Amino acid sequence: MPSCLIVDDSKVVRMVARRILEDMSFGILEAEDGKGALTTCQEKMPDVILLDWNMPVMNGIDFLRTLRGTENGEQPIVIFCTTENDMAHIREAISAGANEYIMKPFDRAIIEAKFSQVGVI
């Protein structure tokens, strides 16, 4: 079963994403911020990371840059899931190593489409 780490400071967003991804047969890990996500990745590197941008402690872009510089950090597929929708943010995310970008709010069809595009389903 593939694993997905959901990184978002909103408990509601994590809960919605968890329900969708569990229905898609993903094992779920969760973190409230980038620092917690790094700890999770050190313990068990997930197959996919669904990543928010704006979070306390460590934001998504700083997490992504740090992750991509760690051992095996290039392996997970990283999909930003955020309200930041201007082209500058999208370009920054892709240049930092994101594989894809989803806008909030999202639903199952959007997640399935993006996960299919990056080859995880």
Account of the protein in words:
It is a single chain. This protein has 121 residues and is α/β, with parallel strands linked by helices. It is 43% helix and 20% strand. It has 5 helices and 5 strands, in the order βαβαβαβαβα. It has helices spanning 11-23, 34-43, 60-68, 87-96, 108-117; strands at residues 3-7, 27-31, 48-51, 77-82, 100-103. A 5-stranded parallel sheet has the order 2-1-3-4-5, with helices on both faces.
List the helices and strands and how they pair.
Layout: E1 3-7, H1 11-23, E2 27-31, H2 34-43, E3 48-51, H3 60-68, E4 77-82, H4 87-96, E5 100-103, H5 108-117
Parallel strand pairs: 1-2, 1-3, 3-4, 4-5
Principal-axes shape call: globular
Strands of the widest sheet, in order across it, are 2-1-3-4-5
Content-based structural category: alpha/beta
Low-confidence stretches: none
Tally of separate helices: 5
- Strand/helix succession: EHEHEHEHEH
Radius of gyration: 13 Å
What proportion of the residues form beta strands (DSSP E)?
15-25%
- Average pLDDT level: 96
Q: Span between N and C termini?
A: 11 Å
Q: What is the total tally of β strands?
A: 5
Task: Quickly describe the structure.
The protein is α/β, with parallel strands linked by helices and 121 residues long. The chain contains five helices and five strands.
Give keywords.
alpha/beta, single chain, 121 residues, five-stranded parallel beta sheet, 5 helices
